[in-house]
Amino acid sequence: MEIRNKANKIRLLNWKTPQMRAFHFSWFAFHICFFGWFGIAPLMAVVRDDLGLTKTQIGNTIIASVAITVIVRLAIGVLCDKIGPRRAYTWLLCLGSLPVMCIGLADSFESFFLARLAIGAIGASFVITQYHTSIMFAPNVVGTANATSAGWGNLGGGTTQIVMPLIFSGILMLGVNEALGWRLAMVVPGVVLFFTGIAYYFFTQDAPDGNFEDLRARGELPPASGENGMGASFATAAKDIRVWALFVVYAACFGVELTINNIAAIYFFDNFELTLASAGLIAGLFGLMNLFARTLGGVFSDLFARNAGLKGRVRWLFIAMLCEGVALMFFSQMHILALAIGIMLVFSLFVQMAEGATFGVVPFINQKALGAVAGIVGAGGNAGAVAAGFLFRTEALTYQEGLFYLGIAVIIASLCALVVRFSADVESEVNSAYQDAAGEHPTAAISLR
């Protein structure tokens, strides 16, 4: 895919260019998706009592919330290659809003499980966000653009933990009981999701020079058929071992973040005898680190690339992953609330920087099958969350033990980053493109104008 006129600088307050509109709408859409995807997580203590759920059943719903996303992420990436990120995002948001609003109809474990399974499809929004920013920004800032858009989107995991209990409390103040309160609370993110999807369609475009259908009509983009079809695009990406190495890496960083989003509130609620609101607030701090942590991962990726090219991006990814695993093991051993919060923030910093570092590498694996690569790697995050979910559904392991074993798994997975290598020709081509793009603004990647 040859996309021209990519932006070589991120101008945060400039909404006039299609690149910056795509940047802002993509992170905001992903942010709102977290309210639908994990809005129920900080309310699980209430749902558990209302539906009479066991620990194993809660674990199964956690797995369900991320399992379906694996499949949808694989499909959404190649769909972006075919119809463009604008239409793909619109359909995902509007259709995804329906199960979010309908989860309140659940009256048993089975119906609640199916609702969380359906809602999980919204998690594919991440792939579209990364796809859209990847084709809008030049090599000198694409790592920063990807990391920042995804990070501010992931920030929704933190704000959800804080805001949803407040929405729930506000509904209770109207005289509604808890059993009905959590059901009504979930209508709010569903409505916002729907209208965000409509706005995405009208205010963004697929690429800097127009939508995919227009580019193909002008002969500026290959047709989405034959050698460039969805099946061919996926097959090309699936044959590359580097894609699967990044699949494992992303499973061990974003998969871990999803797991923490699901269990953090109930973990602090049960282990430190906190109120639901206090547990949600502390759990929200983990996600709020996305305000800057994932961006840092992308910024460092771009900085490492300045001096060491693509090899530098890979080395930084390995370092971030290794530190994440060590920090997670320490977090699992904390029994004093203040220390647990402090180490959680350190762990959160590295897990999110590792995510940013991963998608600082993804755009350079295969630019002709970018959607398929992004989809497979993105699916790795949910596959990791599914695998981690089994550690927290069994009665035989405590949450602390599960987190410790998860930390060991992250350290092992970090070695997969070293499998990612590039040919001398690709290194030279990308380095040349980096220098050309950085020529005008060699130091400042983000500005306010």
From TrEMBL:
Cellular localization per UniProt: Membrane
GO biological processes: nitrate assimilation
A single GO molecular function term of this UniProt record: nitrate transmembrane transporter activity
Keyword annotations from UniProtKB, A to Z: Membrane, Nitrate assimilation, Transmembrane, Transmembrane helix
Signal peptide segment: none
Domain of life: Bacteria
Residues passing through the membrane, by range: 21-46, 58-76, 88-106, 112-131, 152-174, 180-203, 243-268, 274-293, 314-331, 337-362, 369-392, 404-424
Membrane topology: Multi-pass membrane protein
Major facilitator superfamily (MFS) profile domain residues: 22-425
A cellular-component GO term for this protein: membrane
Similarity annotation: Belongs to the major facilitator superfamily. Nitrate/nitrite porter (TC 2.A.1.8) family.
Protein name as it appears in the record: MFS transporter, NNP family, nitrate/nitrite transporter
Lineage: Bacteria, Pseudomonadati, Pseudomonadota, Gammaproteobacteria, Oceanospirillales
